[in-house]
Design goal:
This protein is mainly α. The chain has five helices and no strands. α1 runs antiparallel to α2 and α3 runs antiparallel to α4.
């Protein structure tokens, strides 16, 4: 799994925070450039997009970074408490990060956001496990009893029972 090739926990928090900031900044730049260009007057669309990127993209990058640092902090905490690194840590960290990010809005919103965060991370982890499972099947050894004995014999036996086609 990729978790074992990652940085150790204190450095993982900073690494994930920087990666999340970069993703938010790049994604925010793309979306805000399009939105700014669409809402700008004709003839000023490029400048409208650039201005909106300068104003809004760093905000989205900061929000992503805050979520990333919160998620990684919870993930490292669960790894330390449980003494194992498995998908449950990420699912619980997603729920915890979702709850903390809306703590100002009260316990009801915290619970709802925690459920959404946990479900989303559960879906992501489940898809990762499923992709790894199906991707690793090609490397499993085949059962010898399921393989044909000699491929040249199969060609001869098929040739005898096979018709020559519609016209032949």
């Amino acid at each position: 799994m990729d978790e074992y090739a990652r940085e150790p926990c204190p450095w993982r928090i900073f690494d994930d925070c920087g990666g999340a900031f970069s993703m938010g900044l790049i994604g925010g730049s793309l979306f805000n450039m399009i939105g700014g260009a669409r809402n700008a007057p004709k003839g000023r669309r490029l400048m409208g997009g650039i201005l909106r990127v300068k104003e809004q993209a760093p905000k989205l990058g900061g929000q992503f970074a805050a979520w990333g640092i919160c998620f990684s902090s919870f993930d490292c905490t669960f790894v330390h408490l449980r003494q194992k690194e498995d998908p449950w840590n990420s699912i619980m960290a997603g729920a915890g990060a979702g709850a903390v990010m809306v703590a100002r809005h009260g316990p009801k919103q915290m619970l709802g956001s925690a459920v959404v965060g946990g479900v989303l991370l559960g879906l992501i982890e489940g898809m990762g496990i499923m992709i790894n499972h199906f991707g690793s099947q090609q490397f499993r050894p085949q059962d010898i009893r399921m393989q044909p004995e000699d491929p040249s014999i199969l060609d001869q036996s098929q040739g005898a029972t096979e018709s020559k086609g519609i016209f032949g």
